[in-house]
């Protein structure tokens, strides 16, 4: 494989009620994906806990130090891969966050992203959800570097905010990752559309990573973990059940798309400008 190519695995894992089983399953799937040649393995949002405000306090842990992130650290080191740990509910003092950690092959923590945009929605007759009832929002965009490229992180609802993706592209990211758990209302309507929009606007690869669908759960995840190219095409995907989605990302292709349609260098910063505050 060329040095500019990154083999990534998006792990759409089944998440149940028992935290230790969820963590063990994540480690098993990391092992399987590493065996499939993946250099970076990404887990879904809330991989150690069912998704829901009643569950978050019960499953929350300190980061680092809690059992879930220790397991990710050890798995990254044991299998010699980069691990993007979807998210877990994080406890910090009396606050809870929805947090993603990233681990390098030496077991070093490369990044920690706290979900910036909390999922507070009301679609009458379909779904009401208020993460802010129990979670606190993060305030910081998060990037980390692989030998292949810079990567920007968002969690689920963060994908709806184009400004965050624009900032990542401005910072030089060529891949954006969104562990996420859309549902049976917003999933079919918006999941792929948003992912392709973020990819096309910023001429980056965009990966989404969902838990597998569990129809017995109070919050039913849409699934369909996918990778979209900088041209806006879905290059790898799956349906709703547990799956590992592999994709070989070609960083030369990112440069090629940006050269053919150079929107990133044609921005009119004399007319408008995007800035970060943290
Ligand atoms: N669960 C989320 O954070 C977001 C989501 O389901 C949606 O935006 O739709």
TrEMBL record:
Coiled coil: none annotated. Belongs to the carbon-nitrogen hydrolase superfamily. NIT1/NIT2 family. The keyword Hydrolase applies. It catalyses: 2-oxoglutaramate + H2O = 2-oxoglutarate + NH4(+); 2-oxosuccinamate + H2O = oxaloacetate + NH4(+). Residues 6-251 form the CN hydrolase domain. This is omega-amidase. One of its GO terms (cellular component) is mitochondrion. The keyword Metal-binding does not apply. It comes from Chionoecetes opilio. The gene is nit2. PROSITE patterns: CN_HYDROLASE. One of its GO terms (molecular function) is omega-amidase activity. GO terms for biological process: asparagine metabolic process; glutamine metabolic process; oxaloacetate metabolic process.
């Amino acid at each position: 494989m060329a040095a500019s190519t990154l083999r990534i695995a998006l792990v759409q894992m089944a998440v149940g009620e028992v935290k230790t089983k969820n963590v063990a399953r994540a480690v098993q799937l990391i092992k399987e994906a590493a065996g499939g040649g993946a250099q970076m393995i990404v887990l879904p949002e809330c991989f150690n806990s069912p998704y829901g405000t009643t569950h978050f306090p019960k499953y929350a842990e300190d980061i680092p130090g809690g059992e879930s992130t220790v397991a990710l650290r050890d798995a990254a080191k044991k299998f010699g891969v980069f691990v993007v740990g979807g998210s877990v509910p994080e406890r910090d003092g009396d606050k809870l966050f929805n947090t993603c950690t990233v681990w390098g092959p030496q077991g070093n923590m490369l990044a920690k992203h706290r979900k910036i945009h909390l999922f507070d929605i009301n679609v009458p007759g379909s779904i009401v959800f208020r993460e802010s009832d129990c979670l606190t929002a993060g305030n910081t965009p998060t990037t980390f570097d692989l030998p292949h490229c810079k990567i920007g992180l968002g969690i689920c609802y963060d994908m709806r905010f184009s400004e965050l993706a624009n900032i990542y592209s401005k910072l030089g990211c060529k891949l954006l990752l969104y562990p996420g758990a859309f549902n049976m209302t917003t999933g079919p309507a918006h999941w792929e559309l948003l992912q392709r929009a973020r990819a096309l606007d910023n001429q980056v690869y965009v990966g989404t990573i969902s838990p597998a669908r569990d129809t017995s759960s109070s919050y039913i995840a849409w699934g369909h973990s996918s990778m979209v190219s900088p041209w806006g095409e879905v290059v790898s995907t799956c349906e709703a059940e547990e799956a590992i989605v592999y994709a070989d990302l070609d960083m030369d292709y990112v440069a090629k798309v940006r050269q053919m349609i150079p929107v990133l260098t044609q921005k009119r910063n004399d007319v408008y400008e995007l800035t970060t505050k943290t």
